[in-house]
Write a structure and sequence with these properties.
heterodimer; A: 408 residues; alpha+beta; 2 domains; 6-stranded mixed barrel; 13 helices; B: 277 residues; alpha/beta; Rossmann fold; 6-stranded mixed β-sheet; 4-stranded antiparallel β-sheet; 9 helices; 34% helix; binds adenosine-5'-diphosphate; binds magnesium ion
Chain lengths: 408, 277
């Protein structure tokens, strides 16, 4: 009695009732395609975050006022109660004295109303230094960025993002125009290149950049610095830069040994890791939901196989009377169940991959089909077939041929 | 129990029958003091109460008896579908009374063929594939399987019906497919439990004609259960059961000849039979 022959018998038996076989597979098909799609959406999101983070520059560091905000990506919003422990002088010292640092830009944010003619627009005005475009690897599309001289003199100049240019100066060249920021006239010196959405889905082009000195004096009326962008000389130097900046700031803030930092220095890998963690939690969660539907699919197979064994009692009796051993009958039903779950799994993979390719076109979500989810689905469907097919198969093999032949 | 055999005379016209006198051929079946007791809760049903029976190679035996007399139980034991509670059973010289389930399955596969009242063909499966089924379990090569199945269907007069499914065949044709299936592994013995029970009288004669030809031309041993004396009259020997024991066992002096009867019946086209069915 060879297995190949029993496989042939199982295939013939399945072919006798194709529509039932298809229905039985439905649960597994849905389960597997759900796993593939869910995981690929999760992976796609995570890959997008990674690439966006990388596009911000891998040698980028964040220095922020206040202690580490555990687990948060955007922590360190400033310690306004004790006064800002991070000053412009601190940052100038960082730029001057830390050899592994090449560029520094303080960041001070202020929400403001921008008015040009009869158009107005509420946005975030970011006060930065003239080195901002280089640090963030963000080019200026037309005009130019403001200069170091503009920073020193706190000039009323502004560089706007594409979204603002489109809304305040539709169909015109924004460069050289004047707009009012909180009722103060600022001259537009440049328009940034289009950047698109950030990992959190915010429009990065909806921003205006002015010298941080101007924002501090004209808009905020204080000299606090909340955050600063720092560029290390190279990607390899980011960790060195991180420690050196921390040492310098502790020294400048006169922190006793053992006292906690009153600032935070983070590099992009930390940020990427935090973002990744959020994403993989989501992937696991989606994968679990999909896995449950796979389990339900497996129970569906067992259910139909049990019904099938009962319905085909006479067939089983015939096979046994003719001379089929119990083991041959058991193997036949087990193989039928495995064939069902594997064929269902394969169909599910095809559908899942097709859906994963379609989702970005229809919904605009990025997806990334992972080999692991395909291999996992194949193994899981085979396991489902064996696990949920075993009990019905054993039931079939245990039938008494005389009783089975008498069954109506 | 009657043990004295009357030796039949065979005068079968067209069939040039050369038959070894049954009494001289070796025994295929030897049942010795067979008991079968079913326990149903605290009630014991004695289906067989000491059956001793020998059937020689090439015999055509009809088993008769009232309902509940133990005919099917005997057939199940002869067919190795069931084991006796007590007693010995030798099939083709081999003691099979104490065999395991798998060993009995192997015996059924190699030595026995079954024909049932309800045909018991696999539905949605062509006649050819139904006949191929025992050979699948016997591990016969595909080409050989196909050749032998086609040949068996030919032998029962179903050439050209290979691809028909059971629901496209009349009752008589389905029973012929079942006979072809029983035949195809070249068994020692074909067992038929009320094979004509679901057939009309003409079709019954056709089926009996096939059985008689298999018996006479190929020397296949046949054991057939029937409650119709008309059908038993085609056999060479009749064994009558009563209350789990053999009541009578006798040779038929002049068995009916199905082929002869068919020649005298008005001809019916095969296709018309199918339409009636
Ligand atoms: N599986 C069984 N369980 C209990 N009693 C049975 C079983 N099979 C047969 N019997 C009983 O054994 C007796 C003989 O049955 P059976 O051989 O089927 O008779 P026949 O075929 O001659 O009508 C009957 O009384 C029947 O009720
Ligand atoms: Mg019966």
């Amino acid at each position: 009695m060879n297995v190949l022959m029993i496989i042939r018998i199982a295939f013939r038996a399945l072919a006798r009732n194709k529509s039932r076989a298809a229905l039985t597979m439905l649960g597994i098909i849905i389960g597997v395609s759900a796993v593939i799609v869910m995981v690929s959406i999760g992976q796609g999101a995570s890959a997008t975050v990674q690439s966006q983070i990388e596009s911000m520059g891998t040698n980028l560091l964040f220095v922020s006022a206040g202690a580490q905000n555990v687990g948060g990506v955007r922590g360190g919003a400033g310690d306004s109660n004790t006064g800002s422990p991070l000053t412009v002088e601190d940052l100038e010292a960082v730029k001057r004295e830390v050899p592994s640092v090449s560029l520094v830009s303080p960041v001070v944010n202020s929400r403001a109303q921008l008015v040009a003619g009869n158009q107005n627009w509420s946005t975030q005005v970011q006060g930065v230094s003239d080195q901002f475009p280089e640090i963030r690897k963000w080019a200026v599309q037309s005009g130019g960025f403001f200069t170091d001289a503009d920073v020193r003199t706190a000039a009323r100049v502004v560089v706007i993002g594409q979204t603002i240019a489109d809304n305040l100066f539709p169909g015109q060249d924004a460069v050289g125009q004047t707009l009012r920021v909180s009722n103060m006239p600022f001259r537009v010196v440049g328009v940034m290149a289009r950047k698109g959405q950030d990992p959190q889905g915010r429009d990065q082009d909806d921003a205006a950049f002015a010298p941080y000195t101007s924002v501090q004096k004209k808009l905020l009326g204080n000299t606090r610095v909340q955050v600063a962008y720092v560029s290390a000389v190279s990607q390899d130097a980011t960790y060195t830069a991180q420690t050196q900046i921390a040492e310098l700031l502790r020294q400048r803030h006169k922190l006793a040994p053992g006292a906690a930092d009153d600032f935070t220095v983070r590099n992009m890998s930390d940020v990427a890791e935090a973002a990744n963690q959020t994403n993989s939690t989501m992937t696991v969660l989606l994968g679990c939901i999909a896995g449950v539907s796979l389990l339900v699919g497996g129970i569906g197979i067992m259910n139909i196989m049990l019904v099938s064994v009962t319905e085909r009692t006479r067939e089983i009796g015939i096979r046994m009377a003719i001379g089929a051993r119990s083991s041959a009958v058991r193997t036949q039903f087990l193989i039928e169940s495995i064939v069902l779950s594997l064929t269902g799994g394969a169909t599910g993979i095809v559908l899942g991959v097709v859906a994963s390719v379609t989702v970005p076109l229809l919904l605009g979500w990025p997806t990334l089909v992972s080999t692991a989810s395909i291999v996992g689905s194949v193994l899981f469907s085979a396991a489902v077939g064996i696990f949920f097919g075993y009990y019905p198969a054993r039931k079939a093999a245990g039938l008494d041929p005389i009783e089975a032949l008498r069954y109506e | 129990m009657q043990t004295a055999f009357e030796v039949g005379t065979f005068d079968n016209g067209a069939h040039k029958v050369v038959l070894t006198p049954a009494a001289e051929a070796p025994e295929v079946i030897r049942l010795e003091g067979i008991h079968k007791t079913y326990s149903m809760g605290d009630v014991e049903v004695h289906a067989l109460r000491g059956v001793t029976l020998g059937i020689r190679e090439g015999e055509f035996v009809a088993i008769m008896g009232a309902s509940g007399s133990g005919k099917s139980t005997t057939m199940n034991i002869i067919g190795c579908l069931d084991s006796p509670t007590r007693g010995h059973y030798e099939l083709d010289g081999e003691d099979v009374s104490g065999l395991s389930k798998d060993e009995r399955a192997d015996i059924r596969l190699r030595k026995l063929g079954f024909v049932f009242q309800g045909f018991n063909l696999l539905s949605r499966t062509s006649a050819l594939e139904n006949v191929e089924l025992p050979m699948l379990y016997a591990g016969v090569e595909p080409a050989e399987r196909h050749r032998r199945a086609t040949e068996a269907l030919h032998a029962v007069g179903l050439a050209g019906r290979e691809q028909n499914h059971p629901n496209q065949l009349s009752g008589g044709q389905q029973q012929r497919v079942a006979i072809a299936r029983a035949l195809v592994n070249d068994p020692k013995l074909i067992l038929a439990d009320e094979p004509t029970g679901a057939l009309d009288s003409r079709t019954s004669v056709e089926v009996m004609d096939i059985f008689q030809r298999l018996n006479r031309e190929r020397g296949i041993t046949l054991v057939l259960v029937t409650h119709e004396p008309d059908i038993a009259a085609y056999a060479d020997r009749v064994v009558v059961f009563k209350d789990g024991r053999i009541q009578k066992d006798y040779r038929v002096t002049a068995p009916r000849d199905a082929a002869e009867e068919l020649r005298n019946l008005p001809a019916v086209e095969d296709d018309e039979v199918e339409e009636e069915a």
